[in-house]
Amino acid sequence: xxxxxxxxxxxxxxxxxxxxxxxxxxxxxxxxxxxxxxxxxxxxxxxxxxxxxxxxxxxxxxxxxxxxxxxxxxxxxxxxxxxxxxxxxxxxxxxxxxxx
Length: 100
Hints:
It is a single chain. This protein is α+β, with helices and mostly antiparallel strands and 100 residues long. The chain has helices spanning 38-43, 64-73, 75-98, and strands at 4-10, 13-19, 23-30, 35-36, 50-52, 58-63. It has a single domain, classed as Sandwich (Jelly Rolls). It has three helices and six strands; from the N terminus they run ββββαββαα. A three-stranded antiparallel sheet has the order 4-1-6. Strands 3-2-5 form a three-stranded antiparallel sheet, covered by helices on one side. Helix 2 crosses helix 3.
């Protein structure tokens, strides 16, 4: 399970996942203002991808406990993250299907 959510302040990252028979594929590119790590915290499951960067990245970290408290006490924020999570899962499925 993830340890926190990371909000990218500066630079870009690639989100990659190992696909059986396909090797490593880039499933997303994230940049300033975007977050990574929320899927593992919301779903209480292991991380679904790896993030890599080619330059220095500045990011804000929200630790698991603080993030959970925010979601419990700020319902609109939870809905936003659930929507983002759903969109990413759907986009990931589309990309996986597109590479077959």
